[in-house]
Amino acid sequence: MQAMQGTDHFPTTNTNGLGSTSQDCLKRMREIMKLTAEQLKTVDQYPSVKRIPLRPIDRNDKQKPDTSAGVSEIIGAILLISVVALAVAIIGVFLFSQTTPTQIPNLNFMTGVDNTQTTLYLYHNGGDALKVGEFSVLLDGKEASYNVSGGGSKWSLGTNLIVPISGMPQNVQIVYNGTSAGGGSVLLRQAAADIVSTVNVTADQLPYLDCSAATNEWSCAQQMAQVHPEWVSSLYQTNTTSKRISLMQQWQSSGTIVGGTRNHLNFTVSKPNSTIYIADAKSPNCDGGTVYPLTTGDKVGIQFKSNPTSFTVYGSAPQIWEITGGGNSIMKTTINFANGTSKLFDGNPICHAYINEYSILDSTLDVTTTTPGRATALIVNESHIIEGPNSIPIKLVNVHPIGNGLFLITYGANTAPIYVIGWPDAIQYYLGGVWVNQTGLGV
N or C, which end of the chain is more exposed by having fewer CB within 10 Å? Predict the structure, then answer.
């Protein structure tokens, strides 16, 4: 192999070839740079072409974030919240600037007049109190003057509104004027039926506290809720003049009040502060005994095993004011307490009882006059059946309270008179040679 000659290891070529020496490379680069400068001069000849200046690149110059990014979104959110807040404020001003609605009161009242028919009484028996001046009284559509009993400034529960009248009105209206400005008047209550003129009602006197619709159930609070105020005065008179018997006969003996297994007096206590005092050791004079407190739900049953030598029961629904009598070994009393316990007193007399309120009263007491020829008075409703000596026994079957709750049976002892006020299921008596037997009378 022939060795290469010369010291230059790079091959030599002519200037037209691809390869060149170092000098040729430098010469070629100068030509390219010269050409670029000429081209730039040519660009300056066209003003419409924007020339972008170049700056040296600083490799230490790091790219900084654009802090203006997202500004429009924040401003939009602020504007939206402002609009919503403004709308809420406008709605609030509109709503709260309105006048607060006035609460319309509610009340019930009862009507009554005096005997001269010159004064109308409106008894407030339930509901809200009304200030004088904030309501009007209309009689047959015309406004009438009024004042509160006792000179008060409020017509409240238990007080009367006193209204002067010159004739009997047929309609009474209570109109409330205490509404907000521009709200007008409101009719609270009216009595549309004819006003009863036969009952004398004075200021602050309740014309009627009765349970006329009850059948051996004398809870006034329950029954009064079913009675319309317009009926009150007429019912009061009716209940004291119809279905009522009054009996008196002098000089009775034992057996006037009939005893037997069917003859009893039962009731249920419906209010605390009630008591019954029962004798110890069958003591007829009540020399010793025990007082038993009674409360709501306690039930008392009194049975007459034989004819009592004396006995008294009286009261007015829903109360019993007195129960006493019996005699030795005659009465059987059972108390079933609401707590589930019970007591039985067989033969012990009852010394005293006071029942603050009862809800159910069941009576099957029979009364038969026993001494002929004595002074007698028998009045049935308003009819005087017997007044004077009477020789034929009078019998009352199942005596119980009258319509307004009044109840009285009392017989002291031998030679004492018998007094009865109540209503029986049947009445038997002899009148003008005819035996009268009225049965099926009911309550």
Answer: N
